[in-house]
Every structure is written in C-alpha cells, then in structure tokens.
C-alpha cells in the first residue's frame, strides 16, 4: 500500500468480516447492530462485553424505505469502512444456516440479551383458541425468557430461515413454545355456514403447499407472515397476522379473508362493490345499518324478507313511506291497523271493496262523498253514526233513517 | 573478547572514550549459565523511537560449538551487561535469542555466525493477538496491553510515560500487542502534542510525545572537525563520523505531507462530508526543535508556496462521531497533525558516530554543531553550518563493539533550522525569466 493510499477510504485494503449480532438496540435507531466478529474478536464477554462492541451500520437495499434489522444470533457479514482500524463496520447481509448448537448466553457469538430485554422483545404465539361465539380468538404466549433467546429450542437443528418457505410447516409438530399457524388454520375452518338462501358454505382450506425455493416468505419474530408463493399449481399471496387473521389469494384467484377478532372497515371516500355472482352474508348476531343519505335498492328478482322471530318496524318520521306494486299489493296480518295523524286517503281506479263480515265501524266524524251514493255503487246496508242514528241504504239509496 | 576492561588512561576519573566492559552470559534451555563473552567478535545493541523493543546481535568466532553443545534453538536467554570502566552505570538486561544467521566455518574448528536477540516482549507480541475492548485514556490502554498480553508491567518507565488527551472506547480487533500499541500511539494527541512514540530503551518502555521530548533538558552537544582538541572531558562530544541521510527533498515532503495536507471526512451517521486542512507552517516555534522551518514561502509559477497545496496529501476517512455510545478518536484531531509532524521530523536526518556512551537513550535531545566548508559567520572563523547546527532528536541508538573498540551511533532527526532562511525574492528578473522557460 502506497503512502497515498494509506488512510484513504476505498484505496486502503478492503477488509471484510463475518460476525454474530449480539444487540440491535441502536440508541440512534438507524438499524445498527453490535456485532462480534469471527477472527477479529473472541467469545469472551469479559474481554469484550457486548456493550463495547462496535455498531455495525446497515447497508439497505436500493429499494429504500424498508426497515428491518437482523436479530440476535443472526450471522451477518460486511466490511470495515476504516480498513485496518476496524472500528467502523458496515453490514451488507445476513448469512443463513442451521442452528447446530443451543443458545449459550454466557459466551459471545450468541444471543446474550439480558432477561429484561428479552421480556420486552417479540415472541411467538404459544396457542390459539378459536371462539365461534363472536368473542374472537384468544392466544397465549411464552413468558419464559430463558427459552426466548435465539436459537429457541425448537429451532435447534433446523434452518435459520422460516419453515414456511420450506414446506416444513405441516411437518414440524407443534411444541411447547409455539404452535404453527397453518396447522391451527386447518383445524379451525369455518364450515356449514348457513345462508338466507337456504344453502350453506365452507371456508376453503388453504392451498398452502409451497415447494422450495419458490415461496418467498417474510415471517417476523412474533409470527406475522407475508408470502408470495410461486409454487406451480399452488400460487398464492398471503398476508397473515400472528393471531390467525389472514387474507389469502388462492391459485384460482379466489380470495379468502378471515378476521379472528373484530373487523373494522372505514371508507372515507366512496365505496364501489360489484359482485358478479351471488352474495351470501351470514350474521350470527345483530345487524345494524345506518345510512346517512338516501338508500336506493334495486332488485331484479323476487325479494323475500323473513323475520323468524320479532317484528318489522319501518318508520320515516320526516317523510313518506311509499309502497308500490305493479300488480297486487297484499297486506296480511291477524290485524291491520292503519292510523294517521291527520287523514287517510284511499283511492282506487275502480272500486274499493271491503269485505268485513263483522262490520265496518266509523268511530268518530262524518262521512262525506264527492258524489251521490247511487245504486251504481251497489251499496246496501246500514250506516250507523256514533250518535246512534242509523241510515239504511238499498242499492245505494238511503231508504230510511232511524234514531 | 572477554569480560574485560580495555586499558585506559584515566584522567580525572574520566575514562577513555573507547573503553567498555561487556559481559554476556548464555542461559540455555537446560538451565545452564555460560559466559560466552570471550567468543564475541562483534556486538551491537539497538534502541529506536520507531521500534517497540530493543534488539541486538553478536557475531561469534566459535571454537566450542556452543550451538550444538547447548542445543540452541531460540529458547535461550542472554544476559548482557555493558558499561564503562569505573562508571558503574551499566546497561544490563536479559534478552531472548531468536535467530542465528550467517553460520559458516572459517577454519576446521572455528565457526562464524551471528546470534540475534531481542527483548522477550517482541517474541511474545508475535505469538498473540489482542482481541479486547478498552475504555479510558490511551496511556492506560497501552499499560493494560503491556500487562495483559506481555506481562511487562514492571518494565514500564513511569518517568517517561505520559497521558494524552481524552478517554475513549475501542475494541482492538485482532492486532498484535505492539501493533495495537502503535495504532493507539498514532492516534494520540495532547493539547499541544501530535506525535507520540512508544519505544523501549534500557530504562524500560516509554510512551512520550515529540513535544514532550523536545522540552526535556538537552543531553549534550556534539562537535565535529579537525580542530576539536583531544580533551578527555569533551571526547564524548566528539563526532567521529557523520553522514547526512536526508536533507531537503521537496518531492518526498509533498508525498509525506510535510508542507500541507487535507482530510476529507464522511460521517455516516450525520451524513456530513467535510474537509479540513493542515498547514505545515501552522506549528508555532515552541513545537519545533529549533525555530525556523527549513522551507521558505517562495511561490511557484502558479503563485503558491509549498504550504499552499493541501491536496499534496489528501486523506479520506469514514467516521460516525455523532454516536454517543462510542467515543472514537476522530481523525480530524490527529491524522494530518501526525502526518505533518512525522514528515517534518524526517526532513533533516543525520547519522553520527561518537565515542561509546552507554548513558544516552533514544528520545534525548542533543545539540549538533554541524561543520561547513567555509565560515558562514562573518564574525567568526569557525566553519559551522548555521542552518543545520541546532537541536536534534535522538531517534535511534546503536552501541557497537568491534575489534575491542566501542562506539555509539546515533540517528538524529530535526524539523527545523536554527537560523531563518533569507526572504524569498519571487519577482527578480532572472527568476522570472527562468520560470518562463
């Protein structure tokens, strides 16, 4: 190395390293990690405490805007920006491998986090209880910090990359520390969902059957998963929360979305939904619909509303209620009560027929007609007023009045 | 050569300059102790500001075949005692043998060879790496390394082990102990100090700055010339031989940053890119061995003096000094300053041979009276080089014994002249004409 190259970054020797992340609690929040270098360091936590390790600066991908840090025990590699001095490491990537040995927090090159740090760190789901009574899923988590350092017991002898990428998910049995979400999903499919049409349907099972190396997976420490699976015949896109809430697109383009707890959807603009096939909606509990503006419902076919238990209440306190039928408007009931605050007006293109074997009673007020009652009207009988006066009609002609 | 006192004519208790006493004992791997002084034909002992350890060599004319008889293999020790008769201020120190070279027979029963030896710490340093974190001042880190890896705490010369500025945090990542110490020394700086040396003398391990050394008392003055009278009291000050190794070298000075330099710094945390410059003319005279830099302000054809070209040496360092969790020594504080001073110090380099003086140490300041071809002082007939006569730093010492005559060879460096150079005349007609050619 010439004198001109000495102390000149880029011209001085490129010195690279491989090391193990021992801390990612960067006080500057830049994604830096404290790394213990193989060869350049040793595993003595006395000689070099983790807190003294240099902060390795991350080199993100060109697709900037993403943020992810390696986790403790990850094997990373990079170079020293200050060459021989070896005080300015830059991280370039993570090197995957198999977890051969269990964690040994007493030595460097391990996950040596203290209990306090581990207790506030992400952890996987230990169990899921799928409740179908509308209360949502219940999960439990491992609180034993001694088993939460990496590699966790169930990871030893396994690859450091997610098992979801290698089709191990269905093959690795559940263990005391975590349960596989794909197994839980398969066990807790929603089946025989009734519909108003009288048919029922089932939640489709996931076509999850990835073939290495075609499933591109991001699985986080607590168990969130994003998959873009290119496996031939099983192409899927899946976004899944650790509790089991997921949205998955199937090879045929179907989409299954399951929310394991409450679901909220807020649209601050307009909402357009076009369903080209049929639509079934089954609500086990109540359904409340509040419409701030007008409501327009156009139905091409027969519409059936069945209220199995309870009443139907329709009110328009500020407006009219118009019920119109192109054919017959039928109102059926044990009793039909029609009341109006002011008047009730009836009109018919031809006649109004009343067939009331028990009689028709005017409780109060007068009867006025715009025309003479005539035989054409065919009315025969007695009109009785509340004063007791009776008017006897025969073929529309009042033939007698008695009091 | 035996343990001996070369006959002397003692005058007023002062020995003749070439007198010496030498005793060398060999401790073999089997536990034997053998006086090998009589077999030694030549003996050299070195110390240098640029070397962490003392070294030496002995040339043998060996009719006893001690290599075979004592199964020499590099695990042996030699105990050296070097003194002047009657002074009783010896250099005495144990060394490890590490090499035999030039082994050949001169007669059927005599072998000639050279045995090389060094302080054991040099061997220990070559057998281990420092992989450890350190907190605190640089001098404490160096002491810790000496203790942890070389078990040499007892050899620290606390009278000459100074504390630079600041407390820092480092992880030394796989460096030899002396490599790590040198790395730390290079980055050390004080309020008025920029060039630190870690070195071993017969007094032990030293850590000092150039500025600290030049403020110590001048050890002695040396004279050269046929008119030096034979006076035993001044014989030690007689230059027996001298050689000018380096005088001015503008090209080398530019290359090494003797005149001006720049540092580009990228802070990857703050994302700042800055440039600092350092001018070799910036040091005040209190930080020079003498008073005047051996280069003037003459401007070149594009109007710049030697001190106006910061890109003569351009360095570029990546740092992250915004990080409160670490406390590195920032290159802005040491790099250019160290470079410039190192280059300046190599501007004038002399080698002189004086009568053996086992008291002088690397790191001492001496006055050198340089001869000149003709008198340069109108008031004196003394032929002295008025510029180059002055204070020098002893950067290396070799005590040599050859053919029963001892001498001491000194490497002397200086950064400055004792006299100012004449004011430059840039606009003289001949000069302008020449520049235009």
Quick overview:
Chain A is an all-beta fold.
Q: What distance separates the N and C termini of chain B?
A: 64 Å
- Secondary structure class of chain A reads mainly beta
Strand content of chain B: 35-45%
The most extensive interface, with participating residues per chain, is: A-B, 31 and 31 residues
Q: Average pLDDT value of chain A?
A: 87
User: Cα-atom Rg of chain A, whole angstroms?
Assistant: 39 Å
Helix count of chain B equals 8
Poorly predicted spans of chain B: 1-14
Largest sheet composition of chain A: 5 strands, mixed, barrel
Question: How would the blueprint of this fold be written?
Answer:
The complex is a heterodimer of chains A (403) and B (437).
Chain A: E1 16-23, E2 33-37, E3 55-58, E4 75-80, E5 89-94, H1 115-119, E6 125-129, E7 138-141, H2 181-187, E8 193-194, E9 200-201, E10 215-219, E11 225-229, E12 236-240, E13 246-249, E14 255-258, E15 381-384, E16 390-394, E17 397-402
Chain B: E1 21-27, E2 33-35, E3 40-48, E4 55-62, H1 66-69, E5 77-83, E6 91-105, E7 111-118, H2 120-125, E8 130-136, H3 138-150, E9 156-161, E10 168-175, H4 177-186, E11 196-201, E12 204-209, H5 210-214, E13 218-223, E14 241-246, H6 250-256, E15 260-267, E16 272-279, E17 314-319, H7 331-345, E18 348-355, E19 365-369, E20 390-402, E21 405-414, H8 429-436
Parallel strand pairs in B: 9-12, 13-19, 15-17
Antiparallel strand pairs in B: 1-2, 1-5, 3-4, 3-20, 4-7, 5-6, 6-7, 8-10, 11-12, 14-18, 15-16, 18-21, 19-20, 20-21
Helix pairs in contact in B: 3-4
Describe the structure.
The complex is a heterodimer of chains A (403) and B (437). By secondary structure, chain A is mainly beta. Chain A is 3% helix and 20% strand. Chain A has helices spanning 115-119, 181-187, and strands spanning 16-23, 33-37, 55-58, 75-80, 89-94, 125-129, 138-141, 193-194, 200-201, 215-219, 225-229, 236-240, 246-249, 255-258, 381-384, 390-394, 397-402. In chain A, strands 1-2-3-5-4 form a 5-stranded mixed β-barrel. A 5-stranded antiparallel sheet of chain A has the order 10-11-12-13-14, with no helix packed on it. In chain A, strands 15-16-17 form a 3-stranded antiparallel sheet, with no helix packed on it. In chain A, strand 13 and strand 14 (255-258) form a beta hairpin. With 437 residues, chain B is α+β, with helices and mostly antiparallel strands. Among the domains of chain B are: 21-123, Trypsin-like serine proteases (Thrombin, subunit H, Beta Barrel), CATH 2.40.10; 125-212, Phage tail protein beta-alpha-beta fold (3-Layer(bab) Sandwich); 250-345, no CATH class. Chain B is 16% helix and 37% strand. Chain B has 8 helices and 21 strands. In chain B, the strands form 4 sheets. In chain B, strands 1, 2, 3, 4, 5, 6, 7, 13, 14, 18, 19, 20 and 21 form a 13-stranded mixed sheet that branches. Chain B has a 3-stranded mixed sheet with strand order 9-12-11. In chain B, helix 3 (138-150) packs antiparallel against helix 4. The longest helix of chain B is centred in the last third of the chain and has 15 residues, at 331-345. Classes of the chains: A mainly beta (403), B alpha+beta (437). Chain A binds chain B through residues 3-4, 6-11, 27-28, 30, 37, 39-42, 47-49, 52-55, 57, 81-82, 84-88, and chain B through 131-133, 135, 169-171, 173-174, 183, 255-256, 266, 268-269, 313-320, 322-326, 328, 331, 335.
């Amino acid at each position: 190395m010439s004198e001109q190259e000495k102390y000149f970054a880029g011209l001085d020797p490129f010195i690279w390293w491989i090391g193990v992340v021992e801390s990612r609690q960067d006080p500057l929040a830049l994604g830096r990690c404290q790394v213990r270098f193989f060869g350049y360091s040793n595993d003595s936590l006395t000689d070099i405490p983790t807190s003294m390790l240099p902060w390795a600066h991350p080199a993100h991908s060109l697709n900037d805007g993403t943020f992810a840090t390696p986790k403790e025990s990850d094997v990373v590699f990079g170079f020293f920006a200050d060459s021989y001095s070896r005080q300015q490491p830059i991280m370039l990537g993570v090197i995957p491998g198999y977890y051969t040995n269990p964690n040994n927090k007493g030595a460097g090159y391990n996950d040596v986090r203290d209990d306090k740090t581990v207790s506030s760190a992400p952890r996987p789901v230990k169990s899921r209880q799928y409740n179908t009574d509308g209360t949502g899923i219940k999960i439990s988590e491992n609180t034993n910090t001694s088993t939460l350092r990496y590699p966790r017991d169930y990871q030893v002898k396994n690859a450091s990359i997610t098992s979801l990428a290698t089709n191990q998910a269905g093959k690795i049995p559940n263990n005391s520390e975590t349960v596989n979400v794909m197994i839980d999903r398969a066990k807790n499919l929603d089946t025989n969902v009734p519909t108003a049409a009288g048919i029922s349907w089932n939640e489709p099972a996931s076509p999850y059957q990835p073939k290495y190396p075609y499933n591109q997976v991001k699985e986080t420490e607590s168990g969130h998963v994003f998959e873009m699976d290119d496996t031939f015949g099983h192409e899927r896109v899946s976004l899944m929360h650790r509790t089991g809430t997921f949205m998955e697109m199937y090879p045929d383009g179907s989409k299954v979305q399951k929310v394991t707890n409450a679901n909220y959807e807020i649209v601050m603009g307009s909402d357009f939904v076009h369903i080209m096939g049929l639509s079934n909606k089954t609500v086990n509990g109540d359904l409340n619909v509040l419409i701030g503006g007008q409501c327009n419902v156009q139905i091409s076919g027969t519409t059936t509303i069945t209220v199995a238990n309870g009443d139907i209440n329709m009110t328009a306190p500020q407006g009219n209620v118009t019920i119109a039928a192109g054919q017959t408007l039928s109102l059926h009931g044990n009793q039909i009560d029609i009341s109006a605050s002011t008047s009730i007006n009836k009109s018919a293109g031809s006649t109004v027929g009343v067939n009331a074997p028990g009689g028709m009673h005017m409780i109060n007020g007068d009867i006025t007609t715009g025309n003479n009652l005539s035989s054409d009207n065919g009315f025969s009988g007695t009109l009785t007023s509340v004063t007791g006066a009776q008017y006897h009609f025969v073929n529309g002609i009042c033939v007698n009045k008695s009091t | 050569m035996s343990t001996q006192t070369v006959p002397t004519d003692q005058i007023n208790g002062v020995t003749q300059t070439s007198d010496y006493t030498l005793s060398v004992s060999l401790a073999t791997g089997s536990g034997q102790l053998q006086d090998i002084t009589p077999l030694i034909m030549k003996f050299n002992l070195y110390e240098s500001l640029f070397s962490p350890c003392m070294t030496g060599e002995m040339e043998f004319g060996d009719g006893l075949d001690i290599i075979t008889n004592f199964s020499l293999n590099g695990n042996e020790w030699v105990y050296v005692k070097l003194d002047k008769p009657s002074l009783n201020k010896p250099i005495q120190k144990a060394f490890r043998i590490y090499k035999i070279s030039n082994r050949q027979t001169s007669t059927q029963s005599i072998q000639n060879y050279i045995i090389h030896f060094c302080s054991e710490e040099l061997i220990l340093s070559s057998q281990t790496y420092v992989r450890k974190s350190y907190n605190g001042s640089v001098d404490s880190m160096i002491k810790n390394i000496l203790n942890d890896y070389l078990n040499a705490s007892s050899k620290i010369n606390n009278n000459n082990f100074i504390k630079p500025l600041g407390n820092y945090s480092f992880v030394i990542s796989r460096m030899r102990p002396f490599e790590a110490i040198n790395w730390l020394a290079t980055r050390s700086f004080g309020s008025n100090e920029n060039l630190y040396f870690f070195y071993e003398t017969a007094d032990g391990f030293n850590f000092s700055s150039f500025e600290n050394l030049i403020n110590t008392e001048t050890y002695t003055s040396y004279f050269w010339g046929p008119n030096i009278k034979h006076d035993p009291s001044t014989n030690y000050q007689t230059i027996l031989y001298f050689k000018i190794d380096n005088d001015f070298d503008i090209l080398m000075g530019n290359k090494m940053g003797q005149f001006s330099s720049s540092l580009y710094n990228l802070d990857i945390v703050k994302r700042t890119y800055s440039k600092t410059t350092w001018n070799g003319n910036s040091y005040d005279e209190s930080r020079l061995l003498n008073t005047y830099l051996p280069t003037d302000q003459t401007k070149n054809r594009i109007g710049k003096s030697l001190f106006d070209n910061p890109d003569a040496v351009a360095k570029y360092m990546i740092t992250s000094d915004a990080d409160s969790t670490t406390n590195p020594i920032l290159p802005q504080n040491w790099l250019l300053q160290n470079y410039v001073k190192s280059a300046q110090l190599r501007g004038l380099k002399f080698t002189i041979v004086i009568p053996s003086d086992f008291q002088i140490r690397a790191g001492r300041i001496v006055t050198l009276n340089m001869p000149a071809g003709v008198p340069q002082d109108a008031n004196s007939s003394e032929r002295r080089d008025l510029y180059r006569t002055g204070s020098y730093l002893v950067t290396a010492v070799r005590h040599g014994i050859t053919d029963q005559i001892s001498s001491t060879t000194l490497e002397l460096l200086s950064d400055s002249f004792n006299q100012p150079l004449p004011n430059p005349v840039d606009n003289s007609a001949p000069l302008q004409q020449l520049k235009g050619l």
